[in-house]
Design brief:
The protein is mainly α. The protein has helices at 4-32, 42-67, 75-95, 104-134, 140-169, 174-198, 206-220, 234-240. The chain is built from 8 helices and no strands. The N and C termini lie far apart (54 Å).
Length: 275
């Protein structure tokens, strides 16, 4: 489909950056549980991993129960939410060995909780993204197969780069490691933002409807203009719609009436006056 190659390239970049940072996080976790340290036991390491994995499983269940119904209406922002959470999770794991020993387990547990939330959010919206590409001239099975093959190739290349990366960072100091890690994290976010900008959904959610209503009322309020009202296309909306959950600052000054979208009927109608 048109645009899929660009999407695949940016997706490959963000996958690779995550794998490289994951290598660094794994290295730090192994150091934290005592690999290579005299007196460390396998039982202690196993208990740390059990607690960490248990926290991740609990977070998966709780986050799914609380947010599952919201994913479909805001695919892009939930996808970016997942990316931010995995960045936070990996960062906590990398930093776990640089805090006092009693904080090591809480750091890796919270890090795994963040990664679990990413898995739920990203996994839930991936179906909608695949359906978008399938609607552009192919079928969902073809897109799913290509997506799986793409991740297989990325993982294979990632193993090679990860091995070289792990060997190279073993001889650099902590400041250089954090500088490299920050660069990979920024690259990861930029790549994901580029992926989401390429996707132009032809359906409306709260934000896209708000943007269209805003355009409509701005053009309608211009009494001197007799031109036909022209609203943005899906591609134009995709280039401007918000990708992050940010505070709604300045919305109260928008032109036009207040629009309530996706709320119960009783919230917008005075039931007493209709009797």
């Amino acid at each position: 489909p048109d645009g899929y190659l660009r999407y695949a390239v940016w997706s490959w970049i963000q996958d690779l950056s995550t794998q490289l940072r994951g290598v660094l996080a794994t290295q730090r976790i192994l150091e934290g549980v005592g690999v290579g340290r005299p007196g460390a036991t396998a039982l202690s390491a196993m208990l740390n991993f059990l607690v960490r994995d248990g926290c991740g499983m609990a977070a998966t269940l709780l986050f799914t129960a609380s947010a599952a119904s919201q994913f479909q209406s805001d695919v892009k922002r939930w996808r970016l939410f997942g990316d931010i959470m995995v960045d936070i999770g990996i960062t906590l794991e990398v930093a776990a060995t640089q805090v006092p020993q009693e904080w090591f387990l809480p750091f890796i547990c919270v890090g795994n909780i963040c990664k679990a939330m990413c898995g739920v959010a990203a996994g839930s919206v991936s179906g909608a993204i695949n359906l978008f590409w399938a609607a552009k001239g192919t079928d969902i099975s073809d897109i799913s197969a290509k997506f799986g093959a793409q991740h297989t190739v990325t993982a294979s290349l990632g193993l090679v780069f990860a091995a070289l990366f792990a060997k190279s960072i073993s001889s650099v100091n902590s400041k250089q490691v954090w500088f490299l890690y920050t660069g990979l994290t920024v690259l990861h976010l930029i790549a994901n933002m580029r992926c989401m900008r390429i996707i132009a959904f032809n359906t409306l959610n709260t934000e896209r409807m708000r943007m269209l209503f805003q355009e409509f009322w701005e053009q309608r309020s211009d009494e001197e203009s007799n031109e036909t009202i022209q609203l943005s296309s899906p591609r134009e909306l995709a280039s401007r719609e918000p990708l992050f959950f940010l505070p709604k600052i300045g919305r109260q000054n928008q032109q036009g009436p207040k629009v309530l979208f996706g709320v119960p009927f009783n919230d917008v109608v005075d039931t007493d006056s209709t009797k």
